[in-house]
Amino acid sequence: MEENRGIWVFIEVTDGKVEGVSLELLGAGRKLADKLEVPLAGVLLGHDVRKISAKVIEYGADIVYMADHAVLELYRTEAFMKAVVAMAEKYKPEIFLYGATPNGKDLASAVATDLSTGLTADTTMLDVDPEKRLLEASRPAFGGNIMATILCKKHRPQMATVRPKVMKALEPDASRKGEVIEEEIHLEESEMRTKVLQIVKETTKTANLAEAHVIVAGGKGMGDKNGFMLIHELAKTIGATVGGTRDVVEAGWLPHDQQIGQTGETVTPKIYFAIGISGAIQHVVGMKNSELIIAINKDPDAPIFDVATYGLVGDAFEIVPQLIEKFKELIKEKGGEISYV
Amino acid sequence: MHIVVCVKQVPDTKIIKINPKTNTLDRRSAPAILNPYDAHAVQEAARIKSRTGGTVTVLSMGPPQAVAVIKKSVEIGADRGYLISDRAFAGADTLATSYALSKALEKIEQESPVDLVICGKHAIDGDTGQVGPGIARRIDIPPITNVIEVSKINSDEKKIVVKRKQLNGYELIESQIPCLLTVEKEINDIGYSPMPNMIKAARYEPVIWSVADLGEVDRAQLGLKGSPTIVGKMFSPPRPEGGKKIEGEPTEQIKELMKLLEEKIDLFCFKA
């Protein structure tokens, strides 16, 4: 355990692009590495990913451990796990972070089992105790009503998956220097028990809620399905993803996968509009970690105003149409397009 | 086909209450239920069985009263169930849980080879989703997480094709059997259970195994002792700053809001 040194971040690559959460983790990992005075490394797996290593360094890594192999072209648990476990056993990191994405969670769970170490899921706060070299990984527990800090005292590496859009990426610095270490990993396609036959992108959804940069959410206060169209209109104007409360979903105004809250998605966008939402704890636990919360509600005592950065007391049907007009003007002024993709 | 479904008894987090003074869970406030994702896992196993024939076995770990979730699973369509229950399992994190369940799976496997293991995507009390892939690693079968459809299953060729939910869409994955799936809620709808299942469930007595029944087990890997992670502290989540209320006429409110947003304009991504 004493010999384990360094912070590692799993670099998730989709279609040749680094996932945002991996860049965010390089930012968070940089802070931990500086506190412990150890190097920060990115673990980059895939096929033809060499060109990506420069980006990993620009975003804060000192070292990139890279495995470039045809078998690693698309994510598969057994191939990726084998490569990651081999690297971790060889270089022995003390902390290893993954994005809490479907692939990141899948990989981390398998790797933790093979390395017989502790793994904390869906972390939203990270810190480190430099004396004890202990990772303090905090996450919402029991539906988000309380936070729990999870520690892994006797096993290394200390591992955690971290929710997207919670940590901050550094500004990329092209002058940063780093080392790329290429690992030879023995992998045979014939030994793989799974195969990705096809990848289907669903373009109907603007963006997955959990990954969304801006969310416009509506509640019962929108009256009916027709009134809820105003939510869609504002979202369309600013390129946001639409969400709703449990009431809205149960009334059939929105499909299930757009429900935000304790029994739906937990979201952490940069900007969250809560319109006609009273702010029951059910809903609030799913959105309160958003960076900027703008609430619009008729009732000045609605609990949503306790968590809102800016609260507009008033009728959504008067306010929102004007807001849409203002945003349209602003977008025109700034160059005509708004996009988070 | 022999399908084993791993299920968990959980407090219903929809109605659970937290004591705001002590930050502790008021367990009495929440009824214990079958983890909702696991209910879909049992339902999917029953659906596969209706196509291929075979047996659906349910496996759970928990206190003796967790037999209730096995009986519930029989109601949904499982044929039989085992509960592993022992003080030695108490306090297990995901690593120790996957170890204990894999040992029970090995014992089930001795009686009748297992073709498919199905788990819920995660349990609503822990929200980790780590136990399923952990079990798969321990018994060395491929895990496929976040499954939204079992598209094809061929028990003669030992092949399965499933849809796996991804960030923006899904993947079609082919795997050898045996493998382990973790399923999302949209994989099926759970309707009312057929009357014969209800009658069977009411009379069904699940088998309870202790550690001693599991054969060769490394006790150091069980329960609290076998858990690398511990809860350091509990605290109230930090509240977002703010609470700036803007009142007045809509036009004035919007004017003020847009002025405030100007300072945060970087949060919006404009493309020239």
Automatic annotation (TrEMBL), chain A:
<feature type="binding site">
    <location>
        <begin position="259"/>
        <end position="263"/>
    </location>
    <ligand>
        <name>FAD</name>
    </ligand>
</feature>
<dbReference type="Pfam" id="PF01012">
    <property type="entry name" value="ETF"/>
</dbReference>
<protein>
    <submittedName>
        <fullName>Electron transfer flavoprotein subunit alpha/FixB family protein</fullName>
    </submittedName>
</protein>
<keyword id="KW-0274">FAD</keyword>
<dbReference type="InterPro" id="IPR033947">
    <property type="entry name" value="ETF_alpha_N"/>
</dbReference>
<feature type="binding site">
    <location>
        <position position="297"/>
    </location>
    <ligand>
        <name>FAD</name>
    </ligand>
</feature>
<feature type="binding site">
    <location>
        <begin position="276"/>
        <end position="283"/>
    </location>
    <ligand>
        <name>FAD</name>
    </ligand>
</feature>
<dbReference type="GO" id="GO:0033539">
    <property type="term" value="P:fatty acid beta-oxidation using acyl-CoA dehydrogenase"/>
</dbReference>
<feature type="binding site">
    <location>
        <begin position="245"/>
        <end position="246"/>
    </location>
    <ligand>
        <name>FAD</name>
    </ligand>
</feature>
<keyword id="KW-0285">Flavoprotein</keyword>
<dbReference type="InterPro" id="IPR014731">
    <property type="entry name" value="ETF_asu_C"/>
</dbReference>
<dbReference type="InterPro" id="IPR014730">
    <property type="entry name" value="ETF_a/b_N"/>
</dbReference>
<comment type="similarity">
    <text>Belongs to the ETF alpha-subunit/FixB family.</text>
</comment>
<dbReference type="GO" id="GO:0009055">
    <property type="term" value="F:electron transfer activity"/>
</dbReference>
<feature type="domain" description="Electron transfer flavoprotein alpha/beta-subunit N-terminal">
    <location>
        <begin position="7"/>
        <end position="196"/>
    </location>
</feature>
<dbReference type="InterPro" id="IPR029035">
    <property type="entry name" value="DHS-like_NAD/FAD-binding_dom"/>
</dbReference>
<dbReference type="Pfam" id="PF00766">
    <property type="entry name" value="ETF_alpha"/>
</dbReference>
<dbReference type="GO" id="GO:0050660">
    <property type="term" value="F:flavin adenine dinucleotide binding"/>
</dbReference>
<dbReference type="InterPro" id="IPR014729">
    <property type="entry name" value="Rossmann-like_a/b/a_fold"/>
</dbReference>
<dbReference type="InterPro" id="IPR001308">
    <property type="entry name" value="ETF_a/FixB"/>
</dbReference>
UniProtKB/TrEMBL annotation, chain B:
<dbReference type="InterPro" id="IPR014729">
    <property type="entry name" value="Rossmann-like_a/b/a_fold"/>
</dbReference>
<dbReference type="GO" id="GO:0009055">
    <property type="term" value="F:electron transfer activity"/>
</dbReference>
<protein>
    <recommendedName>
        <fullName>Electron transfer flavoprotein small subunit</fullName>
    </recommendedName>
</protein>
<dbReference type="InterPro" id="IPR033948">
    <property type="entry name" value="ETF_beta_N"/>
</dbReference>
<dbReference type="Pfam" id="PF01012">
    <property type="entry name" value="ETF"/>
</dbReference>
<dbReference type="InterPro" id="IPR012255">
    <property type="entry name" value="ETF_b"/>
</dbReference>
<dbReference type="InterPro" id="IPR014730">
    <property type="entry name" value="ETF_a/b_N"/>
</dbReference>
<feature type="domain" description="Electron transfer flavoprotein alpha/beta-subunit N-terminal">
    <location>
        <begin position="22"/>
        <end position="218"/>
    </location>
</feature>
